[in-house]
Amino acid sequence: MTDETAIAFELPHVRAAATSGPLPLDRISVRDYVQEVEIGAFHSERGVNQRIRFNVVLEVAAHVAAQDDDVDKVISYDTITDAIAAELSAERIKLLETLAERVAERVLADRRAIRIFVRIEKLDRIPGALGVEIVRVRPDAQTPQIGRAPATTSPDADLQPRIVVLEAAALQDPTQAIAAARAPGAPTILCVPPIGDMPDGLDEIAHRNIVLLQMEQAAWLLASGQDGVTVFDSFTELDWALKQGLLCIWAPSRLVLDAGDPPSDLSTSALARWLAATIGASEF
């Protein structure tokens, strides 16, 4: 029989394992994640920052991402840390209970999430730590069978990225092209044309793959040596990069070839429109 008194003071990953059902779920965790913020209901806690520590375990639907080694098929650790950051920045919070509930609610909005353990502790109020822990289950969650988890298909809606299509001439002066494409405060994605000559006599599959690879070559050429610029090939990486304020250049092969209904037109403008529609870009 589980010793509930002992388990009560264990970290969330131990509690999750101790309370799992006959078909244990996969888990991701963020441990000993410390942030310094103003929080608390007492007058002595106003106007001063204090350290709070998060330990979070998220149980998720089983998936086949490991077989594919595909980052877009798993819930990223950023889902947890971004939820924490969003709630801490939304407003000043008095109670750890409120913060824990809001973090849990935000993370469980992902339909791949099943159950979450959130422990939050204040580190500066007493010699040890004081805190709260909650366990929440997504209301419509069911224990899933192993299968293909739905992939992330767009960055955070709050980011509203704009997409800029560059002409081939822009690749002659990458520094100037990057400077011209930047828009302060506006998350930006660049789509670049292919570079190099296309051999004659190619079949459709070879032609498609070479065009996409030439676009990737152009993306890396443009990004080389540029500060604040990154090349992305997955939605998860795009979401992270936009949140870091990076200018993003699309390497399209992976997303296009893995798409359920890939675009037939491989021109740069057509692919850019497809990406814009897929992620809900604010401007094209």
Automatic annotation (TrEMBL):
Return the broad EC class.
lyase
Question: What keywords appear on the UniProt entry?
Answer: Folate biosynthesis, Lyase
Catalysed reaction equations from the record = 7,8-dihydroneopterin = 6-hydroxymethyl-7,8-dihydropterin + glycolaldehyde
Pathway(s)? Cofactor biosynthesis; tetrahydrofolate biosynthesis; 2-amino-4-hydroxy-6-hydroxymethyl-7,8-dihydropteridine diphosphate from 7,8-dihydroneopterin triphosphate: step 3/4
Query: Which SMART domains does its entry note?
Result: FolB
Tell me the superkingdom of the source.
Bacteria
Is Lyase one of the keywords UniProt gives this record?
A: yes
- Domain annotation Dihydroneopterin aldolase/epimerase: ranges: 28-136
Catalytic activity, EC: 4.1.2.25
SUPFAM superfamilies, sorted: Tetrahydrobiopterin biosynthesis enzymes-like (SSF55620)
What is a single cellular component term in the Gene Ontology annotation? cytoplasm
GO biological process annotation, one example: folic acid biosynthetic process
Task: Output the Pfam families linked to this UniProt entry.
Answer: FolB
Query: From the Swiss-Prot or TrEMBL record, what is one GO molecular function term?
Result: dihydroneopterin aldolase activity
Q: What is stated as this protein's family in its record?
A: Belongs to the DHNA family.
Q: What is this protein called?
A: dihydroneopterin aldolase
This chain's source organism reads Pontivivens insulae
